[in-house]
Amino acid sequence: MIAPSLHPEEKARLEALQTMCVLDTPPVHELDRITRMASRLFDVPIALVSLVDTNRQWFKSRVGLDASETPRDISFCGHAILAPGALVVRNATRDVRFADNPLVVGPPFIRFYAGQPIRSLEGHPIGTLCLISPHPREFSDTDADTLRDLGAIVEQYFGQQESFMRAHRAERELAHSQTLFEKTFEHAAVGIAVVSTEGSWQRVNQQLCQMLGYTEAELLHKTFQEITHPDDLAGDLELVGKVLAGEINSYTLEKRYLHANGAVVWVLLTVSLFYDEFDKSRSFIAIINDITQRKQMENELLSLQADLELRVQTRTQELSSALAQLREEMGLREAMQHSLQLEKERFRLTLANATDAFIELDPQGAITAWNQAAEQILGWSRDEVLHCQAQELVIPAGLRAPGRKGFDQFVGSDRGKKSHIQFPALRKDGSEFPAELTLAENTIEGQRIVNAFLRDISQRKADEQEILSSRWRLRLLTDNMPGPISHVDENLCYLFTNRTYEAWFGGSNGSLLGKHMAEVVDAAALATAQPYIAQALAGKQVTYENQVVRPEGTLYTHTTLVPEIRADGHVQGFYTLSQDITERKVLENKLAFEAAHDPLTGLPNRRAFMRILHETIARSRRSALGIGLLFLDLDGFKQINDTLGHEFGDKVLQTFADTLSRTVRETDIVSRLAGDEFTIILEGLDSPEAAASLVATKVLDQIGQVAQIAGKPVALRSSIGIATCSGACTLTADQLLAVADAAMYRAKASGKHTFAVN
Length: 758
Hints:
The protein is α+β, with helices and mostly antiparallel strands. 45% of the residues lie in helices and 27% in strands. The protein has 24 helices and 28 strands. The strands form 6 sheets. It has a 6-stranded antiparallel β-sheet with strand order 3-2-1-6-5-4. A 5-stranded antiparallel β-sheet has the order 8-7-11-10-9. Strand 5 (112-119) and strand 6 form a beta hairpin. Helix 21 (637-644) runs antiparallel to helix 22 (646-663). It is flat.
């Protein structure tokens, strides 16, 4: 026997299994239905939903086997979770892995095994849907496809369980965060307030009340505009408008409030906008620090500083006047004495320390001066070259004739001109190097001379070549990257786009260069990007998500803007680096939908129903309009399942759900709680009991008209319990549901297929 090895990602696989909280839990009818179906479809006595734990395999659902678990080291499923697809063993006695396995040589005497791996939401195998028979058999491709489809249904169940547990954990963390916020709000050493977008104080802490001299009740009946100093109100409202318009996320400013006793209170105010996902409302969170004492000290310091500066200025002016007269006299005397000496010394030092070779020539081309840099660059000493022809020493033999001609033309041309040429220069050792030569003609004491400055540009040429190579490599690299890359200047015009960027936005071969972003990117995407572009042009690297409209559909992107900052701090543009995250976004939306909806009927599930009911009650309290809740149960549904099978029972539930959805208004909410229990939420009712009774009557009538499902005659009946609230609802969601549930049982007790109102 060969024991199964551990999975390459064993730790992550076990973490995913533990997250679901399904080990050692009671059976569920959804999985039992699948194992029974598998046993019948494949004509095998044993069908299992097996979960592979650390040292065991435990059966969440089993048909034809009494044992609830077996050791992992003798399990077939331990091998199956290592395979990419289904593991099929047609005759275990002929397989070296299992021939002497205790489950083969002893009960249940396994001969045939087929196991389809079941995976978590992140793709980790947590177990299998497996088939077992004591007789060898073949297993066709069609059989494999059917087993894979059944496995997908099992996998969907565990995926829902995993999503539910993750959501439950998130709810606990949210509750903890809310408690922490409440403690911080009440005990903070600074003023904290929640303010409506119109300026009304909605919630304030005691620190703020003490700071402004109002009681909490007094402050809640005022707006921030009423207690703001008139001189500060316009600036504050301007910043509020920018936040509401989405131009900025928050702002901080120093302003003045008016104390309840009329005094001025200086504060440091920080405001940010908060969006409530629960009731879709917006409000401001304000943090308020009292800086009145600091402002008083600043004013006193400014007064003292102004007095001191006036005294210093007066004394400085007196001293400056006297010193200026003295310096003027001394400067005039010294300037004449040192001017000539400084000029001579400056010229000498310049030539001695110049990095360029300096060569002085007479009009015939003979060398009359030769600096140290010329010795280092060309290899000749000053004594070796004086009075020699420069062309014979510096210019290669093949270029001397045109070089001589060019020199004579320069000397014979108008004076005062300069000439710049590049040519291969010659060293004493016979080697050549690229050089740049500048010629200038001057006259000193009536004598014409030619000054030549020669520079070795070998490194510059090498750098230019390296730059060209680097540009080519950069273009090759960026053009082969999967994400779009661009370089945009501060005017939002393109300086560079890679091939992927051009493919995304309809360009080719540099056709986007010089264009404004508004000519290339669709208006909606550019509007979303504008606040982040502003931050990038302010020198901040930012990352955001956006949507880009393309002919083949909308893409979701993750984009980073990297500012291009010069040495002096000026931002002269930015780089854009984007990634396509469409697949991830689609998956997130799908998981969110699946977590809130019943997979059989497509209706909101119990968790979504409770959230919607909470929201409905909250709206009722604000609008003072009544609501109604109908709790529906299918009469005789268990008998339908037992006589016609669970598959037909599912079709009955789907027909029941469709009938309910078609009968009520579009604004009414139909949900499936569990099994054959459904609910309908009605809101905005002037007469809740009459309206709910009318809906119940219509539902019973429509259900009674269903005569057959999937070609089989049926007679659907339902018992309905109704709970209502007139005006603002004072019950909680749990209380309202309990009332409707109790009414439903009264309807059943009174003869079924009717409704009762509590």
